[in-house]
Fold this sequence. Notes:
By secondary structure, the protein is mostly helical. It contains 14 helices and two strands. The radius of gyration is 21 Å and the shape is globular. It starts with 9 loop residues before the first helix and ends in a 5-residue tail after the last helix.
Amino acid sequence: MSHAAHGPNWPARIGIALASLLALTFSVALAVTIGEMRIPLDTALKALGNGLFDLDFPVSAIQQGVIFDYRLSRALMAGLCGGALALSGAILQALLRNPLAEPYILGISAGASTGAVAVLILGISIGGAVLSLSAGAFIGSCAALVVVALLAAGAGGASDRVILAGVATSQLFNAATATIVTTLASAEQARGVMFWLLGNFGGVRWPDIWMAAPVAFIGFGICMLHAKVLDAFAFGVDAAASLGVAVTRVKVVLFATTAVMTAVMVSIVGTVGFVGLIIPHAARFLVGSGHARLLPACLVIGAIFMILADILSRVLIPQQILPIGVVTALFGAPVFALILYRARRPQ
Length: 347
């Protein structure tokens, strides 16, 4: 019999929370100590103390900059990005009742990339004010959602049709991005954009953290407020409506939340695929399908996964950093195939 039948098991929950916090801390510690420049752990801790608490430990300026301004900010951004994308995947899978739903597959990431690239190259402005990358990415992600909704509605609205509409929308916006880059960008811009589109934490700095952190945690809070509602969606839209759920309002709020989280992360990091697909499935395997447990698990596991993936991107090939999107695809594509195989319907 499950623990849920006996009510909340608070000691176990506290133990899991502490273990998760330790695992997250350990992954960040690995991220700040592993790299081309070998820095002892005690030196790394001193650099962190200097940066976080304004201490005055004797650490060289180069080591201080590498640890605090490069590796720590990079690790925190990786954690925020992984957690936000995993949350977005869990929300989309619940709303669409499809195990293959996630921002990358549904074209939301592609739309956000198109919006960000359009702002970056064209310098689009509204009312005389030039749009920021995040604003352009948000507009692009919303446009992608609208296209997916229209295509899916025209095809009958079934969840498998939504996935097919997402694939088509992703190709459409990828083509739009390629057109902008190849016809309007300079050679230098094109190189930078194409590398950025594959996902890159190299340019992350502390101002990016201050923008991404509120978006990730506010988005997490909104999702948690709808945890019980998301459980109701597991029985279908009609069942949720019969339980008193304002289906349309909930869908608008949660789709907008996933669009904002995806847009902000894409505008900072670039396109990163498969995180929103594989992490919710791993979290369900560990904590079950109840969203009150699933959503925090997605946030933590997604953060740890992305931090470890970023470490791999820096150490897999000596003296070369792989785009983070390449690393996540190496893990995500086989898992996607496995999920697709297990989700097949018997003939």
